[in-house]
Amino acid sequence: MTNAPPDPMIGRLIDGRYQVRSRIARGGMATVYLATDLRLERQVAIKIMHGHLADDIVFKERFVQEARSAARLAHPNVVNVFDQGQDSDMAYLVMEYLPGVTLRDLLKDYGKLTTEQTVDVMDAVLGGLAAAHKAGIVHRDLKPENVLLADDGRIKISDFGLARAVSANTATGQALLGTIAYLSPELLTRGTADARSDIYAAGIMMYEMLVGKQPFTGEQPMQIALMHAHDQMPTPSTANPGVPEQLDDLVLWATAKEPDERPTDAREMLERLRTAEIEIVGSRPSSNATQRTMVLPADTFDADLDHAQTQVLEERRRTDPVKTVGAGAAATAGAAGAGVMAAGAGPAGALADGTDIFAGVGATTVYGNSVGAPRAPRPPDGPKEKLARKASSRRKRGFWIFAIVVIIAAALGGGTWYFGAGPGAMTSVPDVAGQSPDSAISTLTALGLEPTRADQSSVTVAAGTVIGTDPASGASVRNGSAISVLVSSGPALLPVPTLNGLAQADAEAAVQSAGFTLADPQREFRDDVPDGIVAASLGADGNQVGLDGAQYPEQQPITLVVSLGPVPDVVGQTLDEAKATLESVGLVGVDGSQDFSDDIPEGSVFEAVRSTDPVRPGDSISLNVSRGPAPVAVPDVIGMTWDKAKPLLADAGFSLDYNFGADLAPGLVRVTGTNPSAGTLAPKGSSISIAFT
Description:
Layout (H helix, E strand, L loop, with lengths): L12 E2 L3 E9 L3 E8 L4 E8 L7 H15 L9 E7 L2 E7 L3 E3 H8 L4 H20 L12 E4 L4 E3 L15 H8 L4 H5 L5 H17 L9 H10 L5 H4 L5 H10 L11 H18 L27 E3 L25 E4 L6 E2 L5 E2 L6 E3 L16 H38 L5 E3 L8 H10 L3 E7 L9 E5 L5 E3 L3 E7 L4 E3 L8 H10 L3 E2 L3 E3 L9 E5 L12 E3 L3 E7 L11 H9 L4 E8 L9 E6 L9 E7 L4 E3 L8 H10 L3 E3 L13 E5 L5 E3 L3 E6 L1
Parallel strand pairs: 16-19, 21-25, 22-25, 26-28, 30-33
Antiparallel strand pairs: 1-2, 2-3, 3-4, 4-6, 5-6, 7-8, 8-9, 10-11, 11-14, 12-13, 15-18, 17-19, 20-24, 23-25, 27-28, 29-32, 31-33
């Protein structure tokens, strides 16, 4: 295995200012590196366009234009762009470096997010997106890969619109699939995009955070595109019942097929998200515990101040004779007496000269002045007074909301705790059937129940798997109740009655009454067992059961082997008679060999050979047919005296035909010939004529 060649960009000094340290990521259009800004001594992320795109003038112009667009977005939820330039043949973009992970990495590690986490991430994403839409910028490629989660808790959007500069044939494989998963129907069908296209992508991303997967998936990009264009968008609660109804509605609103049916921009969706969060928090049981930070309704915010950035305010004209800054002077950043508007919430209070600092959501305005310098009265309807009235209104509204929550919590806290989270609370027993015992016990424990394991036999659930619970799933029980987790130990083992030697009907009744099931019986010929009597009983593995007191699992099949009696004896029958006899009992007689037999007449069966053991109906029996006695050679007795020749001929199996006078002596008369002659083959029992001298 060979190592990959080193990246030539590592260690390179770009534009005499940015020292490349390491590579962070590589995409279809550019590669992102970690670099050091030698001039300001800070770490930055520098994105360098791929070399094969450098000759495309249109592409380079879009790269520069998109960089300028992103640089215009000064927002805490948008990655800052510091610089853009050209070094030799490289176009580069210098951005804020955020050590951390992407939302995609978070989803890979945790699958899905909680409702609170989803709302927090979407609040930041929509905030940055709202600033972009207000500036006339459409992201066009919003997806979890472009949402950065910094180690210090900041959430920022990156890559504003840059993906649109990539040609279609450079985005292949997984990159294309990931992009298509978030593209709106109008982008897929008409190729047009506006702020509502970003809203669609935000809705798909919100669904994925709540459920842990995308709503439309498939093997081919075109298949996913058609789903986005035509299929009904599922609600997150269908896949995750814990999702509140308010977020279901928000996702469906954002992912409507027609752009006109979606929020007009991210600001409108953000306001609805914050309203939904209040409704979700308000619907939960109150408690005396510290409440989660709540987002106030949209109408408590000044639309122009929600995301105001640090600004330099013009010095107000003073009317009193004592002042340290000339009237009408414009204060600049870093100059003495400059006025600063700081984004975010700040503490309420006043400067030493009495200048107010307004706390709360939106911008905090500090009008600078020399310490101890007297202040001139301000016009009653000036900007500062308007801000003061708005801040005061927000503080009062927040106070009353908080007061109402405290009163309700104090009045109902005890009862709510007892019946909502305390011993009086009711919990629905979940369905844990089919799980492992440890998993089921963990699930029930997490709900505040006290599960214990109880083994129970089952013929339908595999051993070691949860059958169910007692009380059963769906039942309502009080917190802390004992729950039995019923775990299958497999089928129960039962004794098998003695079945061999019983008539078939009696054996079948004994099997069923003992708790087993009957398989189809086997029938075979047994020479030692009468017809209709059980010769053997077999288990599911084909082995004999019910011997030596052995047990067998309940409701398992038992096969009875029933005897048909002995195979009929057909020896001595003719071949046709033997075949008919065997056919009458379901056997098949087949022609066998032919051989001599001293005992069976010619043409009759002298032997029936079985081809199988045991013999069952349909099996074949070979029938060997007799050719009669075997022929033997006539002994040579010529010249022998009769008393010696006679026993030889008789022992050979022949009958003797001769005329021996009474006056002749057997010991003196000699044989002069035989018919048939000596050595001739003749059947046993045939007659031989004898001649004498």
